[in-house]
Fold this protein.
Amino acid sequence: MSTWIEHLREYEEIMDPQRLRELLEDVDLVELTEEWRVLSEEEETLVFLHLPMETKLDLITELTDQQQERILHTLSEQNKKELFTEMEPDDLVDIVQSVNPEIRNTVWESLSDEVKRETLFLLRFDEDDAAGLMNPRYLAIRSSINISHALEFIRKNAEKVEFLYNIYVLDNLQRLIGIVSVQDILSSDDTKTISDIMDEKVISVREDTDQEEAVKIMEANDLVSLPVVDQNNVLLGDITFDDALDVIREEQTEDVYKMGAMSGEAESYMTTSIWGLVKKRVPWLIVLLLVGTITTNVLHHYETVIISAAFLFIFMPVITQTGGNAGSQSSTLMIRGLATGEIQFREIWVIMGKELLVGIVMGFITGAVIILRSIILPPGLGIEQGLIIGSSLIFVVLISNMIGTLAPLLIHRIGYDPTVMSGPLMATVIDVAGLSIYFEIAKFFLKI
């Protein structure tokens, strides 16, 4: 437990509001967020009320839905109004969409008319689209004004926006025609006009662009903000880097869930109920259980082979684990390449050819290792038996590598998330394929 929490609990009864504010000023946002779950509801309210407004705004967007609801439920109407007046519209919309209807009504009643208009504007858009992620507060100017007037405009309006990096240039119809950085304005002569220094090649996205695609565009072009326009190129708002980071974090968490064969959205582990955790895990667990039972059918099918050559049973785990590892390696490379845009489906034949050669080389290397291992070390197989194990492993590694390569590409091609074909699901599929290959090769060599 952090020192500031211990200090708060020890001296809370004799600590005046000013002293409490001074104590909380030294606590950074990361520490506040991490330690928030150990506070009681009374302590949450006490701490939140005595935080600086800037910290309040940052903290409430980092808290879970349940924690947000508890805070909002205990705040007075005046405190809520002060908080929402200062909050960025996109953050406010996120809260409105996430809290329960009762809290949502109290939030709505606390909003000013201007904030209500901004909120209703953003609520028109799908929360998974670029417009659902954007902030409608931005600075825009005309191309005809000079640098001196632009600087005066920035000084008067800088506090109205969350971040001040770029100024958008609009025509008389509010259409986006250019962009200029604050740095360029500050470093230019006062007599120049904005049209002299603006960049007319503006990277923007349509309002209905998927937010993950918008973030990829920001990442690929090293942008700190990305303008969002409608079909007529009218500027609606912009996506800033802090919101892009939130999307990246949520996407990575969801990908990790899928790789671990879990479903659901990214949520805090400590605040998720037992039943919530079960719901995330059990659907995929049942699917993997049913798929895994195919392995028992494979073993039953080759029962006579196993009885005739008991040494095959001893090396079954080695075959399946090595095949699973080879498939997981190739699928991880494909999923990563698809996520970054480095790999495209149109290159599938080049990729398959490359991985075919990789699989052959890896197969012969691992096959040679297992031949030597099976002969030299216990159980000390004969040369013929060792060659059967090694030959089987060559084909298992090769086929597993090809499955791990092809499956994510095909799944991505038909519009699904390729991360589902990784981790436990990949291992289960390769177990079935690997054992079938293993026993068929053994049958061929042993003439069973």
Remarks:
- The first strand starts at residue 140 and ends at 141.
